[in-house]
């Protein structure tokens, strides 16, 4: 009898052990499958192709009006963003007439109606990052002046445009100009300079020098004449 009780007790203990092990196994969650590593994000494409400033002469009255457009270029070289800037007297033509003798009030707040004026001449220059930052700083200084004024002789729209041109490294003609002549002169002066200002930060390639032609042998007929060469337009004095 005792042997039967011991055997039953042993079987009961083994059954409890198996049940506990089964419960622990069933309560264990299966390991989640590993996910593939996320691919690194591609860098955003840069749409900028650089910067620009465009000097413009608008047709109005006798003098015209000079102003600038500037901003960012896309990769095709087209204007992606454009901002305008100028200096102009506050008031009507009577105020401008007085400004030929004494300074009159002026401001740099952009007037969108200027864009309705026909453009007599424009000159665009590409800018690098440094030049563009210099331009923004120059515009900010000009627009933050506490008492801007306009005077036909000492501080007109050409003076304002000239300051912005100098800020990006351009050479500037005398500002006492008609605006419709100031912008073409600004272009001519800088395109004729060395190195060309229109290729900002990129010096031009030197051109190969061709050997000078050998002088032709003289003949008695060549040495016998003392007649001077004919007058040409390049010999005329510059006025």
Describe it.
With 239 residues, the protein is of the alpha+beta class. The protein has a domain at 48-191. It is 32% helix and 17% strand. The protein is built from six helices and seven strands, in the order H-E-E-E-E-H-E-E-H-E-H-H-H. The chain has helices at 2-27, 93-98, 129-143, 157-167, 179-191, 220-224, and strands spanning 48-58, 65-74, 83-85, 88-89, 104-107, 119-127, 149-150. Strands 3-2-1-6 form a four-stranded antiparallel sheet, covered by helices on one side. A hairpin with a 6-residue loop joins strand 1 and strand 2. Helix 3 (129-143) packs antiparallel against helix 4 (157-167). It is globular and about 45 Å long. It starts with a helix and ends in a 15-residue tail after the last helix. Residues 1-30, 38-47, 196-209 and 218-239 have low confidence and may be disordered.
């Amino acid at each position: 009898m005792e042997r039967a009780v011991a055997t039953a007790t042993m079987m009961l203990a083994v059954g409890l052990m198996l049940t506990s092990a089964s419960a622990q196994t069933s309560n264990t969650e299966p390991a989640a499958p590993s996910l593939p590593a996320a691919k690194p994000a591609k860098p955003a494409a840069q749409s900028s192709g650089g910067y620009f400033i465009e000097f413009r002469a608008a047709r109005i009255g006798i003098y015209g009006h000079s102003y600038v457009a500037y901003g960012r270029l896309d990769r095709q070289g087209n204007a992606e963003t454009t901002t305008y800037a100028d200096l102009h007297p506050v008031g009507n033509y009577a105020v401008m007439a007085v400004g030929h003798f004494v300074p009159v009030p002026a401001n740099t707040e952009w007037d969108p109606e200027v864009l309705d004026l026909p453009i007599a001449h424009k000159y665009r220059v590409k800018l690098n990052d440094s030049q563009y930052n210099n331009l923004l700083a120059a515009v900010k200084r000009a627009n933050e002046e506490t008492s801007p004024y306009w005077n036909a002789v000492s501080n007109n729209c050409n003076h304002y445009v000239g300051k912005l041109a100098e800020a990006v490294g351009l050479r500037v003609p005398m500002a006492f100009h008609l605006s419709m002549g100031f912008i073409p002169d600004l272009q001519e002066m800088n395109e004729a300079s060395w190195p060309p200002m229109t290729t900002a930060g990129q010096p031009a390639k030197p051109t190969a020098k061709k050997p000078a032609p050998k002088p032709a042998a003289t003949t008695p007929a060549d040495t016998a004449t003392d007649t001077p060469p004919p007058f040409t337009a390049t010999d005329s004095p510059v006025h």
